[in-house]
Amino acid sequence: MFQPACIEIESQNYAALIRDCSELGAGFEGDLHLKEGQPLRYRWGNESFYDAVVTWVKGHRFGVEDLRGKYENSERKPFNYRSVRIPTSRAAEVYIRGIRESGELLNVSQRGFCVLLQDALEPGTLATLKVGPNEIEAATLKWADGDRFGFIAPNPLRIEQMSALLAV
């Protein structure tokens, strides 16, 4: 599959790469410190969360077993085109035409991010997002809804980039 996934552990969200799934669970790759038997929830695309327990850990790879038991693969939509949105609440700076505006990073996906800002912006506006030491340059405003703004990154974000934005 090789799609970004949202891993939720004790109400904290992390980014990981879902490498495969079966009728009993899934395999992931990510920089998470997990232990066998640890409960978590995961999702990708527009899927709902699956409750699971970690069954194995080997370096940066790990496997989980779904707690609801065996199910039909047809219940999942593994090739959903929309990347998972990983919710967060992080202080952010957005630079537009050289002017800094403080805001809040609301979510991150493989293709972009959503921020809460005070000033009105027009779709097509170019911006740089800065969260701690991490930056995404040349992002394009795709949509605006009140004080929420959705930007498209110039290139798909790697799992490491997504994780860095969430870890600040």
Keywords:
six-stranded antiparallel beta barrel; elongated; mainly beta; 5% helix; 168 residues
Q: Outline the low-pLDDT stretches.
A: none
Q: What's the helix count?
A: 1
Spatial order of the strands forming the largest sheet: 1-2-3-6-5-4
The overall strand count is: 12
Give the overall shape, derived from the CA principal axes: elongated
Major sheet size, sense and barrel closure = 6 strands, antiparallel, barrel
Order of helix and strand elements from N to C terminus: EEEEEEEEEEEEH
Query: Regarding quaternary structure, how should these chains be classified?
Result: single chain
Mean pLDDT: 90
Radius of gyration: 17 Å
Q: Give the CA-CA distance, first to last residue.
A: 28 Å
Our estimate of the beta-strand percent is over 45%
* Coarse structural class: mainly beta
Helix content: under 10%
Structure characterization notes:
The chain is mostly beta strands and 168 residues long. The strands form two sheets. Strands 1-2-3-6-5-4 form a six-stranded antiparallel barrel. A hairpin with a 3-residue loop joins strand 8 and strand 9. The protein is elongated, with a radius of gyration of 17 Å. The relative contact order is 0.17. The model has no long low-confidence stretch (mean pLDDT 90).
